[in-house]
Amino acid sequence: MNRRGLILSVLALGVAGFGGATWFATRPGPVAEAELVAPELADAMIRPYSPILGPADAPVTIVEFFDPACEACRAFHPIVKDIMAEHGDAVRVVIRYTPFHGAASEEAIRVLEAARMQDVYEPVLEAVLREQPRWASHGAPEPGLILQIAATAGLDAEAARTQMLAPDVVAILNQDRADVETVGIRQTPTFFVNGQPLDPFGEAELRRLVAAEVAAAQS
């Protein structure tokens, strides 16, 4: 091998080595294996009345402890929808109410439950989250503003005023508060995928964990 050939060979080996090192440093991380929720907590994770987005019989279940007044929940909502769209009928989302923001959270949950009674849950959920900066501000939102917002998405606001006070809605709020305490939820959103807590928390981690569970369900 002449001198030029020797130099080219050394450069090629260097490029190959650099490429390998780059791949190793940037390769997708493995899905962390988290412990499943303890069996005694299973009932507190999903209740028969819990709202479900997506097909009820999907093999992969994301349980989201969710506060409609939470800015991070609002930020994650399009991500969750994108994950559902990516996996088609394989993924469903079970919503557990987590009213960490006091009266604003509770009123929003009551509006959502009224929307469920009127079969306009998802469009009202979209409107409530889209307009969250208006009704969930830390100032003094206009009374009835969230009902006005929900009405633009199809809610009968007059009927909702009565429905929001129904005993069933009060019971859901009370049970979800108790379950939040039982499971030990301290922040929103908090996600579980087929019983596994999302830890560490993050969009990429959620996407990986859901994809792994979908692949396992389809294998």
Automatic annotation (TrEMBL):
GO MF terms held by the record: oxidoreductase activity
A Pfam family it matches: Thioredoxin_4
Disulfide bond among keywords: yes
SUPFAM superfamilies, per the entry: Thioredoxin-like
UniProtKB keywords: Disulfide bond, Oxidoreductase, Plasmid, Redox-active center, Signal
Database matches in InterPro entries: Thioredoxin-like_fold (IPR012336), Thioredoxin-like_sf (IPR036249), Thioredoxin_domain (IPR013766)
Residues of the Thioredoxin domain: 23-215
Domain of life: Bacteria
Family that this chain belongs to: Belongs to the thioredoxin family. DsbA subfamily.
Stated role: May be required for disulfide bond formation in some proteins.
Protein name: Disulfide bond formation protein DsbA
Naturally occurring in which organism (per UniProt): Sulfitobacter alexandrii
